Amino acid sequence: MFTCGIDVGSVSAEAVILDKNNDKKKICAYIIAPTGGDSKEAALSVFNSALKKAGLQQQQIESVVATGYGRQNIPFANKNITEITCHARGVVDFFPQTRTVIDIGGQDSKVIKLDAGGNPLDFLMNDKCAAGTGRFLEVMSKALDINLENFSEIFKKTKDKVDISSTCTVFAESEIVSLIGHGADKNKIIKGLVYSITNRIISMVERIGLEEPVCMTGGVAKNMAVVEALSEKLEVKIYVPSEPQITGALGAAILAG
Amino acid sequence: MSRAYLNMGISEKIKDDLKNKIQRNLDRAYITRVLKILGTRPILSAYGSTFASESDKILNIASIKSLKNAYSGRYPVAYGSLFLPYEMIHALGLAPFLPEVMAGFTGGLGITDKTLKEAASKWYTPDLCTFHRSAAGAVELEIFPKPNFLLCANLACDAAQKTFYIDAVKYNIKDNYYLLEVPFTKDKTGIEYLANQIQNICEDIAKKTGKKLDMDKFSKTISLSNQFRHWAIKLNSIRKKLYNYPENFNGLNFILPFHGLAGTEDAVKVYRSMYFEFKKLLEVQDAAPKNKSKKRLLWLHLKPYYKNRIFNVLEENNYILGFEEINYVYWPELDTARPFESLAVKMLSHPLNGSIDNRICAIQNMVKDYNIDGAILFSHWGCRHSNGGARIIKDSLNKSGVPLLILDGDCLNKNNSSEGQMLTRLQGFIEIINSSYK
Q1: pTM for the complete prediction?
Q2: Which domain holds residue A183?
Q3: Are residues A225 and A196 in the same domain?
Q4: What is the CA radius of gyration of chain A?
Q5: What is the least distance, in Å, from the CA of A82 to any CA of chain B?
Q6: Which residue of A has its CA nearest to B381?
Q7: What is the pLDDT of residues A135-166, one digit of tens each?
């Protein structure tokens, strides 16, 4: 039996096709693509691409579960489930013992507390602003004219940081422009930015109560600078799935069964 | 299609038409004219026939009558803050007007953008709760009736005592502004202290309106308040067992009768008729016990009063509001022979007065009594008295095995929160409760 999970986020859309014919689940194919301006279209596009990659026809898919902010707008989905439940389920598949999930996506960041059986017990989400999300890093990367992929290396090699006092993305952007204008070292600014986003997440983790093991998912989990900063500040090891961006879609595919 | 259903459609059309007209003619004189026409016997009777239930009809007619009185110019108008004992206003023969509740109507009327904009232009800070800001804007725009007296209390919420004072200055009636200073403890000294204030205010207002304090009227008003309390308790006892409510029923819509109409025949009629309607529903439910599959939520604080999907999502997921904190009957039966002391006791019994433990204790009782599966605290922007205790309430409920969702939002300003995020939190919470039942 094949199932599919589709996660439509603000920045990217993901599809995972799962083979549940055997006792052990197997990912047949997954696709990650930018969402663009039309979430419905993005969902259809990643679905078709995943089908093609897996060599399957739509009618072979038993059930489709949609998740993410665009979950209610996917006509071919049989059901929609929130990203809270889907991320929790997906994480457990990668790391069954996980008790805390930190998910940082394009416009949402959330912390989910799991019980010993992997069921979500409680969660917290960021408020309506973009601080503490992937969008914050994207905007800053543009302001600095430094590719996001280089943040990790810069973070590692830079000792000191420049503190960024603004929480608001727009204000932080102008603060950076002003810092550059005053001749501040861009690498130190990057270090400061990473700690800035980390502090937002830590306050959510502390509110919900940290329990190990901790796992991080979402697109920002690919940015090792953020993972390392979180690990350092929380004083815990943070596990990251091999492809953290598909965790929500994987959870949806599992729940589609 | 039933007649009641058709009538409900007509009622919505009338409301929509009125809404559009009021949006276009936002001034006191126009609203007074509309209420004058609406309040005539034949129109009220025709309007009443558009409601599906007797209680709905009584409540809507009573609300129009109360508003008509406040706008008519025939009675001295008393602005009152929410937690005031309205029995004193009714006994004094004043027309009560509740700016905070009416601010909720500005949400329903779709004019909050205008009232908030006006408040902002008059230097009301954006971190002040929108009920008070919208009310302040409506006063500045002279949409609300002109007050003769302004009565407020420092019970729970402290915003009205400031905004009402600004209103008193605007209308040059500072001497008619009264603040009830409510102590934290319900002991003999506290009761006496508050009762004296209530009595002094009543005597002062009576003098200013050229009347003598009519103790028989006070006694009668207290008696009516007790009758309303009696039926509200009976209604709540039915709700403990009820899983199916009448169509369009939302327990979060009863602030006006619960507070502003306390001490009137209308409040007694509303709650008595609701009791009998709900009793019938319980009998139907008992005949088909399988209807009890719904999960029950306790709703803490208020709800968004603009169009939103929160309650649709709850319904789609087979959830009902088992109870709402605002409908909790928290005070003992009042003594008709000692009206001022009784009203002091009523105020001092409010769970939001004093320590947060009082509120937690009341919430825990509601959880037990109403068979609650989970609770939602709607964290209204700027509401310190409710949001300040959210964490302690969450911890207390978690200890009892009841999950609590703190749902951030704004009761009036739809632009102050994202519906998508709100619904994701709500749905996520529902999924958590459902998974614990597997």
Answers
A1: 0.91
A2: 97-240
A3: yes
A4: 19
A5: 6
A6: A127
A7: 888 888 888 889 888 999 999 999 999 988 88
